[in-house]
């Protein structure tokens, strides 16, 4: 019975072992399938899987041995059952065998425990293999993400290549445009050279016609002022040309009232013939006054041409004929015939000169208009892309134009001083700041010549004084400019010191000293005369017209001051002058700065009222560079029509125009339209009369031709952007920023 139980127990154990073997085989089969999958995905795990297969093969061999052993035990048990009767006898022996079998079973149990441990090892190895597979999957995903980023980068690079291709196309178009513009500029340069040459020929031709007349010839303005004359006039009157210009025509005759009536008849009737007068000279020359008006292109009378035919010989003949009348009537007839022929010849000469004189007068009156275009367009072209030669030629044209404008201004100032028309302001200003700002203009030139500029300023001078800062600038600029011009090495010293202070007035001495070429003692007085320099070689070497010091002297003396000079040859010169100023407690006005072009200021609408096409084109060019909107009107009437149809921020108004001039248009805008829009006058004539008239009709400011583009920009922005309270119609601000009241 015990043996049977033992057999049943062994059979159960055998079944358990068989089940475990089946499970192990199933596990082994599953592991093989997983191994196959992992082997397909993981090349790196192949060695590990091979190792696992080897281990599993060993376990399978061990299980085979165990199965054989179990089969043997089964056979043995069957033998025991068959020999049951014999076994009773051998029970003791079997018990011993049973102990052996128990020992063997213990070994089998140990083997089973060992197999379970091996299964756990295989499970752990499977977990490691799964983690390795997950790591490889993550690496694949990273590679895929990197590939996506690489694709995006490739698309971006393709887009950048397309942009570069588009930019290259635009650059090619720009290059083609610049080539066309270069051709246009070359044509414009040739036309400008041809125009300048024709202008020079016309000037020489007109002057030749004037000087061809042996009789005194004048041109006079409607107000009776002499505007030009020929050399015969200078010889007859004994007065220099510069002193004649701008003076009253009738002052040079023995009967000024009669002479005044004579030229008034010319402007009333349009002409006068054989009007008898006597020129005041050492001979008291008797003349027949013949005159005729000349007009501009619009038919407006702008002056008169007068020829004073010398009839001294005619008078003598008449006297001789009267004395000889009692002796011979025939002689009288001959003299009268001669007189008739002489008068006929005079009229022919007057008619021949009149047409040419009118052309010359118009050209002289409008001399600033072509200069405005020449200088203005030269500045515009200089800003473009040029070759070195083109830039050199254009710079020469600009320098020549600037020199001519300086000469015109000097002559104008000289004429105004001589005629007593110079007006001096009485405005509060800060002298120290004013002089420092003025000397700043010479810094570049002084550095170029390696000179040293020294400023000495008396601290006792009141901070704010009342006087004409503009004319003070003009005086010091002339003197410092001369010092820089005639000094090649050393120092230029500008000193300002207070001489005395009495009540509300101060006397101040200004001195400009240099270490230049100096002036000989016998030339010191001569240098203050018109068109005079220290020597004939000075003009050739250093340039200049000799007007600067003459203007300085007259400006100083016209303000009640005095000027003097001390000098030694090759040691330098010291020019000093004394002027009086009033003290004040009033705060000085801040001078208007010359503004730099601001790219942010764009929204300014400007109406340009100008009749000359060249000036219209120049103003368009300048305003386009500023970035301003602009419309053009050819006269005042068209300007008013545009104002009624559109709003503008400011008006640039020329003064002399056909149909309706700038004065008439401004008066209509202020009085009829009741508009306070800022108006800047554009004028080629900056005389006191014009400025007073500008102020009277309500213009806010003026700018002289040729136009300084930076000054124009500053005035436009200043009037448009500053508070409305300062835009008072009737207030004129001069070109240095000072108000003229």
Index terms:
Beta-Lactamase, Heat Shock Protein 90, 741 residues, disordered C terminus, rod-shaped
Characterise the protein shown here.
The protein folds into four domains: 2-182; 213-365, Beta-Lactamase (2-Layer Sandwich), CATH 3.30.450.20; 427-583, Histidine kinase-like ATPase, C-terminal domain (Heat Shock Protein 90, 2-Layer Sandwich), CATH 3.30.565; 605-740, 3-Layer(aba) Sandwich (Rossmann fold), CATH 3.40.50. The strands form four sheets. Strands 6, 7, 8, 9, 10, 11 and 12 form a seven-stranded mixed β-sheet that branches. Strands 2-1-5-4-3 form a five-stranded antiparallel β-sheet, sandwiched between helices. A five-stranded parallel β-sheet has the order 14-13-15-16-17, with helices on both faces. The longest helix has 122 residues, at 91-212. Helix 12 packs parallel to helix 14. Strand 18 (732-733) and strand 19 (739-740) form a beta hairpin. The N and C termini lie far apart (150 Å). Residues 355-365, 531-545 and 723-741 have low confidence and may be disordered. 58% of the residues lie in helices and 16% in strands. It contains 21 helices and 19 strands.
Give the proportion of residues in helices: 55-70%
Q: From the helix content, strand content and strand pairing, which structural class follows? A: alpha/beta
Number of domains: 4
Beginning-to-end CA distance, first to last residue: 150 Å
Q: Please tally the β strands and state the result.
A: 19
State Rg. 57 Å
User: Shape, please?
Assistant: rod-shaped
Instruction: Extract low-pLDDT stretches.
Output: 355-365, 531-545, 723-741
User: Can you give the mean pLDDT?
Assistant: 76
What characterizes the major β-sheet? 7 strands, mixed
As a percent range, the share of strand residues is 15-25%
Number of helices: 21
């Amino acid at each position: 019975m015990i043996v049977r139980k033992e057999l049943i127990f062994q059979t159960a154990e055998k079944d358990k072992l068989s089940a475990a073997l089946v499970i192990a085989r199933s596990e082994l089969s599953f592991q093989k399938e997983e191994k196959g999958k992992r082997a397909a995905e993981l090349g790196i795990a192949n060695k590990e899987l091979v190792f696992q297969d080897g281990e599993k093969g060993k376990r399978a061999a061990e299980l085979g041995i165990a199965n054989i052993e179990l089969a043997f035990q089964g056979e043995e048990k069957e033998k025991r059952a068959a020999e049951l009767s014999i076994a009773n006898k051998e029970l003791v022996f079997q018990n011993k065998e049973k102990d052996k079998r128990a020992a063997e079973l213990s070994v089998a149990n140990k083997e089973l425990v060992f197999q379970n441990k091996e299964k756990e090892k295989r499970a752990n190895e499977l977990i490691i293999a799964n983690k390795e597979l997950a790591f490889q999957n993550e690496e694949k995903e990273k590679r895929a993400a990197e590939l996506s980023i690489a694709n995006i980068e490739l698309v971006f690079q393709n887009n950048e290549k397309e942009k570069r291709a588009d930019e290259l196309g635009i650059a090619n178009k720009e290059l083609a445009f610049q080539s066309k513009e270069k051709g246009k500029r070359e044509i414009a340069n040739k036309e400008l050279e041809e125009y300048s040459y024709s202008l020079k020929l016309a000037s020489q031709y007109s002057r030749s016609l004037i000087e061809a007349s042996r009789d005194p010839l004048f041109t006079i303005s409607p107000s009776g002022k002499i505007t030009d004359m020929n050399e015969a006039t200078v010889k007859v009157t004994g007065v220099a040309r510069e002193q004649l210009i701008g003076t009253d025509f009738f002052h040079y005759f023995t009967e000024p009232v009669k002479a005044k009536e004579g030229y008034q008849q010319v402007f009333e009737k349009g002409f006068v013939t054989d009007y008898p007068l006597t020129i005041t000279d050492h001979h008291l020359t008797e003349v027949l006054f013949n005159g005729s008006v000349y007009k501009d292109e619009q038919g407006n009378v702008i002056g008169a041409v007068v020829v004073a035919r010398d009839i001294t010989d005619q008078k003598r003949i008449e006297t001789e004929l009267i004395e000889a009348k009692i002796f011979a009537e025939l002689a009288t007839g001959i003299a009268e015939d001669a007189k008739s022929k002489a008068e006929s010849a005079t009229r022919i000469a007057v008619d021949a000169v009149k047409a040419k004189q009118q052309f010359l007068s118009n050209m002289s009156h409008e001399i600033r208009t072509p200069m405005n275009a020449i200088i203005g367009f030269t500045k515009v072209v200089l800003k473009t892309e040029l070759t070195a030669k083109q830039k050199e030629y254009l710079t020469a044209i600009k320098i020549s134009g600037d020199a001519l404008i300086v000469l015109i201004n000097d002559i104008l100032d000289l004429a105004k001083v001589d005629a007593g028309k110079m007006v001096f302001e009485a405005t509060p200003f800060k002298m120290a700041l004013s002089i420092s700002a003025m000397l700043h203009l010479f810094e570049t030139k002084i550095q170029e010549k390696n000179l040293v500029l020294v400023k000495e300023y008396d601290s006792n001078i009141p901070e704010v004084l009342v006087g004409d800062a503009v004319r003070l600038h003009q005086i010091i600029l002339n003197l410092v400019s001369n010092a820089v011009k005639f000094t090649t090495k050393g120092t230029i010293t500008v000193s300002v010191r207070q001489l005395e202070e009495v009540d509300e007035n101060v006397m101040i001495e200004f001195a400009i000293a240099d270490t230049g070429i100096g002036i000989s003692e016998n030339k010191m007085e001569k240098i203050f005369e018109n068109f005079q320099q220290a020597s004939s070689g000075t003009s050739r070497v250093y340039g200049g017209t000799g007007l600067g010091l003459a203007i300085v002297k007259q400006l100083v003396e016209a303000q009640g001051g005095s000027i003097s000079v001390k000098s030694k040859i090759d040691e330098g010169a010291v020019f000093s002058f004394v002027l009086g100023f009033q003290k004040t407690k009033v705060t000085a006005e801040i001078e208007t700065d010359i503004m730099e072009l601001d790219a942010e200021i764009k929204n300014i609408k400007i109406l340009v009222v100008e009749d000359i096409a060249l000036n219209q084109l120049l103003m368009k060019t300048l305003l386009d560079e500023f970035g301003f909107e602009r419309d053009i009107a050819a006269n005042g009437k068209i300007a008013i029509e545009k104002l009624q149809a559109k709003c503008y921020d400011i008006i640039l108004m020329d003064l002399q125009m056909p149909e309706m001039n700038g004065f008439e248009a401004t008066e209509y805008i202020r009085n009829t339209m009741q508009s306070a829009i800022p108006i800047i006058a554009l004028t080629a004539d900056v005389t006191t009369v014009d400025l007073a008239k500008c102020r009277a009709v309500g213009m806010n400011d003026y700018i002289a031709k040729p136009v300084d583009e930076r000054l124009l920009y500053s005035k436009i922005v200043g009037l448009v952007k500053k508070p409305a309270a300062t835009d008072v119609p009737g207030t004129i601000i001069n070109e240095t920023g000072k108000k003229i009241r």
